[in-house]
Amino acid sequence: MHTDASLLAFGLSFLAAHRGGPQLLIGHLSAKLGRSSGLVLIALLTSLATSALAAFAGAWLSSGFIGFERAMIAALALALAAALLAQGKSPQLPREPTRSFGAIALALTAKQAIDPPRLVIFASAAALASPWHALAGGAFATALSLLLGWALAERVSRTANWRWLRFVVAAALLVLGGLIAWTGYISSP
């Protein structure tokens, strides 16, 4: 069950992160500033930190609840992730990016704080009341997404519009949230 949770967190987090703000920002910065090892290190560290925060927050918040209440926490987080994905705003990318790694880390952390992949990680940890499996799958997926953005640079933002994928993932998250809520409802005393 927990291995399945890691794989589900990985798959949904990776799909939710595809062509998201952090990935596009890293691709843009990589194209403008070059593919430096410092940039990829900042991207990976901020991804790990925000994923860990989401996983531990989800587990902590749901630890005081059982059954339906815990399921509703996870379902609402998935619904919020779906709403953010369906919104589909294109991120504003800086025309003259900074070379300050501190500013880049701050911008990436802010973009990743409450984005769809982190909400998926939060929901997975809340459903299990354990952060470790959600963190393993989600952190690997979001780091992989940022690594692809760094490696592909400008090609990330110039590729075909994958907006339809974001709608499909949003619909899948809504269905999954509904199933989690219903499972919690029918299993509660």
What's a quick, concise take on this entry?
The protein has 189 residues and is an all-alpha fold. Helix content is 81%, strand content 0%.
Which structural category do the helix and sheet elements fall into? mainly alpha
Q: Kindly report how far apart the N and C termini lie.
A: 23 Å
What's the average pLDDT?
Answer: 87
Count of alpha and pi helical runs = 9
What is the number of strand segments?
0
Q: Any idea what the shape is?
A: elongated
Low-pLDDT sequence parts: none
Radius of gyration: 17 Å
Helix and strand run: HHHHHHHHH
What would you note in describing this structure?
- The chain has 189 residues and is mainly alpha-helical.
- It has one domain.
- Helix content is 81%, strand content 0%.
- The protein contains nine helices and no strands.
- Helix 2 packs parallel to helix 7, helix 3 runs antiparallel to helix 7 and helix 6 runs antiparallel to helix 7.
- The chain is elongated, with a radius of gyration of 17 Å.
- The chain starts with a helix and ends with a helix.
- The mean pLDDT is 87.
Secondary-structure map with pairings?
Blueprint: H1 2-17, H2 21-33, H3 37-62, H4 67-87, H5 101-113, H6 116-128, H7 131-152, H8 154-158, H9 163-187
Q: What attributes does this structure have?
A:
189 residues, elongated, mainly alpha, single chain, 81% helix, 9 helices
